[in-house]
Amino acid sequence: MKLCSACLLGMNCKDNGKNNRDKKVLKLAKKEILIPVCPEQFGGLSTPREKSARKGRKKVITESGKDVTKNFTKGAKEVLKIARMFGVKEAILKQRSPSCGSGQIYDETFSRKIIKGDGVTADLLKRNRIKVVSEEEL
Questions:
Q1: pTM (2 d.p.)
Q2: What does the mean pLDDT of the chain come to?
Q3: Is residue 26 helix, strand or coil?
Q4: Neighbours of 4 (CB within 10 A)
Q5: Into how many domains does the chain fold?
Q6: Helix 69-86 and helix 120-127: axis angle, to 10°?
Q7: Hey, which of 45, 76, 79, 107 would disulfide with 124, CB 3.0 to 4.6 Å?
């Protein structure tokens, strides 16, 4: 049993209201139980919503400059709660997302420049000894 970014399973929860359906993830879902999670929705953000990015290690801001750090933190904590509830030790999360990115995220300029770093949820899961992989690593 693993956590999985809901957008990778075809759920329309991305910031633009669409999904990131991934064939490898869907194939895996036929063999293993994948628990869909969307930290941004769990944190109270709507779908669709304004694009967000991490600003340093402490903040998450929208493209218009609104601070949504509390939403991202709340959503990450809810995902961790689910992991603990089901004894999950691994998560497949959407690469480069400000919530789910593992090792790579987009920078705060919204120019789609990729930088080293983790999304809020990926960071929290890793700090709690839950293995995080991206869909690109499957």
A1: 0.97
A2: 97
A3: helix
A4: 25
A5: 1
A6: 40
A7: 76
